[in-house]
Structures are given as C-alpha cells and as structure tokens.
Design brief:
The structure is a single chain. The chain has 110 residues and is an all-alpha fold. It has one domain (8-104). The protein is 77% helix and 0% strand. It has helices spanning 8-12, 14-37, 45-70, 75-104. The longest helix has 30 residues, at 75-104. Keywords: Membrane, Transmembrane, Transmembrane helix. The chain crosses the membrane at residues 45-64, 76-97.
Length: 110
C-alpha cells in the first residue's frame, strides 16, 4: 500500500486549476495557430488539443484520488476534490469536442 500524499488538500484543487488552465491555453492556441497552419503541411492543433484533454483528465484524476483519501474525514477537502474531479471531466469533454473540430474543419476555413 502506498503512503498518502503529503498535501492532499493541494491535490484536491488539481482539477479546478489544471482543467481551466488547459482550456485557456487551448483556446488561445486555437485562435492563433490557424494562421500558421493554413499553408503548412504540419497541423499541430489536434496534437495540442489532445495534450490539453490529457492534462485536464490528469487534474480530474488527481482531484478524485485526493477526495478519496480524505473521504473518511469528509469536510471541505473531500468536497473540493469531488468538485475538481467533476470540473476536470466536464472541461475534458469540451476540449475533446474542440479537438474533434480541429480535425474536421481545415485551418484555412477557421
């Protein structure tokens, strides 16, 4: 059995921080990259969007683990961990839809 992490309260906030940060970065890159992708043969947009989805899912997983570690004590860290996990999953779904849009719509049409 692995020992609990040193700061489960900080890990509970991972989904609430990593998910929106990934969404923010993906949105900004989605606004600036089409100009560079239009004439180029390499399209980094779908790969960067996929990395943002994975980052958001990682934050959701960390929050879920932190809420499970503190569930016996309940209270605010368990709630923040559950809320962070749910937020990370919802944002990961939105990022997945954005990454699918980068595959369907060409960069010149954006």
């Amino acid at each position: 059995m692995t020992p609990p992490p040193a700061h489960p309260v900080l890990l509970a906030w991972a989904g609430l921080v990593m998910g929106p940060a990934a969404l923010l970065a993906n949105t900004q890159l989605g606004l600036t990259l089409p100009y560079a992708e239009c004439g180029a043969s390499l399209r980094p947009g779908p790969f960067l969007s996929g990395a943002a989805v994975l980052l958001s899912l990682l934050g959701a997983w960390l929050s879920w683990r932190a809420s499970g570690l503190r569930r016996s004590g309940a209270g605010m860290p368990g709630f923040i961990g559950s809320l962070g996990a749910l937020t990370g999953l919802i944002i990961a779904f939105a990022l997945l839809l954005q990454s699918l849009a980068t595959l369907v719509i060409s960069a010149c049409a954006r």
